[in-house]
């Protein structure tokens, strides 16, 4: 298991329990997919004929959205709910994490809504690629915050029973 430093409840590294580690492990393929999306957005920006790279971007965003929603749901449905009883969610790190989930999903949702129009011109394709770039920047920063702060915080505050329940929940949703 990976050690994670956190300045919130001390600077010593934390070894994450199995359920938390599994959620962190999901960040790697999501980050890799984000890199693919960013590369495609850059291709859309540079291409004179944007149709081919934009069509590929549509497919990749559709696939990524499914993976991201699956991951987000697993965090929100149990981990965030348990953390809320310890730290609340009206302000602080949990509020920020939920806001960033909404923000990233909002960029992707706007893209997916806009592509329902099959006649997007080059400008509209560029504008929509920017939505995905915004999601990229939001999520890269978001994952780093979760790994450095939120997951170590959860490890420190969750009881052994809560950690085991998280492990089971993360395993059963697969």
Oligomer: single chain
Average pLDDT score:
91
What's the number of structural domains? 1
Uncertain regions spanning at least 5 consecutive residues: 1-8
Write down how many β-strands occur, each being a DSSP E stretch of 2 or more residues: 2
Summarize the main sheet. 2 strands, antiparallel
Helix content: over 70%
Radius of gyration of CA atoms, rounded to a whole number: 18 Å
Which CATH first-tier class would you pick? Mainly Alpha
CATH superfamily name? Answer: nmb1532 protein domain like
Shape: elongated
Strand and helix order: EEHHHHHH
The separation of the N and C termini measures 20 Å
Supply the helix-strand structural class: mainly alpha
Strand order of the largest sheet: 1-2
Taken as a percent bin, the fraction of beta residues is under 5%
Q: What is the name of the CATH topology?
A: Four Helix Bundle (Hemerythrin (Met), subunit A)
Number of helices: 6
Looking at the overall shape, the CATH architecture is: Up-down Bundle
């Amino acid at each position: 298991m990976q050690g994670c430093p956190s300045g919130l409840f001390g600077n010593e590294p934390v070894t994450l329990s199995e359920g938390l580690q599994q959620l962190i492990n999901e960040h790697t393929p999501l980050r890799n997919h984000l890199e693919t999306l960013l590369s495609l957005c850059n291709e859309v920006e540079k291409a004179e004929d944007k149709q081919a790279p934009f069509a590929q971007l549509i497919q990749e965003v559709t696939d990524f959205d499914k993976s991201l929603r699956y991951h987000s749901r697993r965090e929100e449905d149990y981990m965030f709910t348990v953390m809320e009883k310890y730290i609340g969610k009206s302000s602080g790190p949990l509020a920020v994490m939920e806001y960033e989930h909404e923000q990233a999903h909002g960029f992707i949702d706007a893209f997916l809504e806009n592509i329902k129009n099959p006649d997007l011109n080059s400008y509209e394709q560029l504008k929509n690629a920017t939505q995905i770039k915004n999601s990229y920047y939001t999520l890269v920063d978001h994952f780093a915050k979760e790994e450095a702060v939120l997951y170590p915080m959860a490890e420190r505050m969750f009881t052994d029973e809560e950690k085991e329940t998280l492990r089971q929940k993360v395993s059963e949703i697969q």
